[in-house]
Amino acid sequence: MSLPNNDPRPPYQLAANRLRAEITSGHLKPGDRLPSSRELRDTLGIANATVHAALRVLRDEGLIYSVHGRGNYVADPKQHPTVDPIGELASEWAGEFTLDYTPPAWYTQYKESAQADHVKAGPPPPVTVDQTASLAEILLGVREQLRHVTGEVVSLRQQIAGLEEKVSRLENPDVN
Fold first, then answer.
1. In degrees, to the nearest 5, what angle opens at C-alpha 161 toward C-alphas 159 and 165?
2. FRET pair for 107, CA 20 to 30 Å: which of 8, 49, 125, 132?
3. Mapping DSSP to helix (H, G, I), strand (E, B) and coil, where does residue 164 land?
4. What are the tens digits of pLDDT across the range 113-158?
5. Do 155 and 123 fall within a single domain?
6. 65, 23 in Cβ contact below 8 A?
7. SS3 label, residue 119
8. pTM score, whole prediction
9. CA-CA distance, 133 to 40, in Å (whole number)?
10. For residue 58, what is the domain's CATH number?
11. Containing structural domain, residue 120
């Protein structure tokens, strides 16, 4: 009972189709144990991984179920209706998704102080390019912008270091 060689479909699909046909024809009835993976491998002439892929397809379709250490069995459609997990998730998520989250106080305080610092500092000076400016003048303007950005980076690094120190003190109060 080997699989056809001239069929372009992957072997696991062919094996799944063969087992599906035996189930739907009534040759294998609900509750019947399927042949073992080794028996299917030898009978169908396919690799063990291919057998497992075919069984996974049938399991996903709800035609069979597995009992660990016992084997695979034909499912009873009345007891094991086919489940559409995507449809279930879609129906669960059909409403508005909300998340009840309140950030911790330290984060709120930090964010407010960072925003206040940003407002005090104001926006960085705009880069203006004069059509008649020389390349040297343009480079000086770019250098000034880099100094400004570098200063902001240094300030942010200092703030991060301060926060890390505070967190360390909160996590290890006995060390101080």
1. 115
2. 125
3. helix
4. 777 766 666 666 665 555 556 777 777 778 888 888 888 888 888 8
5. yes
6. no
7. helix
8. 0.45
9. 81
10. 1.10.10.10
11. 105-171
